[in-house]
Amino acid sequence: MNFEIDAFGTLVIAVLVLFIGRVLIQKIPILRNYNIPEPVAGGIIAALFSYILFKFFDLSLKFDADIQKTLMLMFFTSIGLSASLIKLKQGGRALLTFLVCISGYVIVQNLVGVSLAKVLGLDPLIGLVTGSITLTGGHGTAGAWGAILEQEYAIKGAIVLGMASATFGLIIGGVIGGPVANYLIRRNNLATESKQDKDQNDDISSNAVITAFEYPHKTRLITAKNAVTTLGIFATCIYMANFMTWLSKGYWFELPTFVWALASGVIVRNILELVLKIDIFDRAIDVFGNASLSLYLAMALLSLQLWLLSDLAGSLLLILLVQTFVLALYTIFITFRVMGKNYDAAVLSAGHCGFGMGATPTAIANIQAVTNTYGPSHKAFLLIPLCGAFFIDIINAGVIQITLKILG
Where in the cell is it found (predicted)? Predict the structure, then answer.
């Protein structure tokens, strides 16, 4: 039996999930020590509760999808609105280096998936489903490519398999990021635990140039006028994103709505700032961005159907476990070293775990959890949103197309 929960009920439960996650982090040292994000901790408990209801009471909870989609678009819009060209120039060579590093992993991920599928006697395309289609791409990409694989390549159950794999990745991506960064930081003596993020008002200059999501606990003073103006800008960007999704459908420049939302944010931000000379209220953007991030991630985990994971055959689950192990090794021995073997590199590794197995919101939550414990990393908050939310999706689409042509 399905029980539908409306938008307000979904929002109330999502907030409750965040509170549960916060209490768990405070009360359970291992979660705190390994920098598990609050939405992940609370979301897993909520998902387990939903699984119990389904398994023992045949009750399936269906949460409002529209509000979750809106929060996701607000999250990606906030990344775009924070992408001032002045800030983008700060990325420089590090941005290109990180992009090459994570692009290499997309290829590795598919090689692992396809190779293991062949060894286990499965169709190689199933290995691609348990590769970058679902793990780097997430649920949206899993649904889109799953339909194509079912219709054009006769891979039965590709959508269900994709959703189950993406579900696994979303959970694991939020679980391994903190421990990987924690291992790198402690092993290389890169930082010590800090209380700086508990109250940052005295530590950050009001004129400091910071990126979105960099200081989630910092008090940001905004007025009603600024809030209304910023919400108007968000609405404009999301409207543009929906329009471009409709306009590009079926054409070569077709992209997911969240990519258009990010791109719209970049365009609107820089037109207002550089052309029209209008001040942008970064504090309000940060507040809305962080709020939508937390709520979206809580809702995403809250909506997970864990019984899909229980339907995975042992061989497919084995592929996903190996993918997890390979990602951890890649971030420790390649991402960390290529990015400089310093504290920023360790935080970037946590972020890479987030969108390498899950999604960009997971990556942001990972690096927030790490920096809350060890201190700020401006480079990580500059590079992760850009690479994880924009560039990697475009690269992943190209890699998937080429791999499909090779596999036939």
Answer: Cell inner membrane
For residue 386, tell me if it sits in a domain: yes
How far is 28 from 377, CA to CA, in rounded Å? 25
pLDDT tens digits, one per residue of 119-140: 988 889 888 989 998 898 876 6
* Residues lower than pLDDT 70 in the chain: 34-35, 84, 86-91, 139-140, 143-144, 193-220, 306, 308-313, 389-390, 408
- The reply to whether 229 falls in a domain is yes
Q: Kindly state whether residue 114 falls inside one of the protein's structural domains.
A: yes
Q: How many residues does the chain have?
A: 408
pTM of this structure: 0.73
**Would residue 57 count as lying in a domain?**
no
Question: How crowded is residue 51: how many other Cβ atoms within 10 Å of its Cβ?
Answer: 16
pLDDT in tens, 182-198: 999 999 999 776 654 44
Give the count of domains, the chain.
1
Q: What are phi and psi of 4, to 5 degrees?
A: -90, 135
Chain centre to alpha carbon of residue 349: 14
How far is the CA of 278 from the CAs of 211, 270, 272, 281, 373, in angstroms? 19, 10, 5, 10, 36
CB atoms inside a 10 Å sphere around CB 267: 15
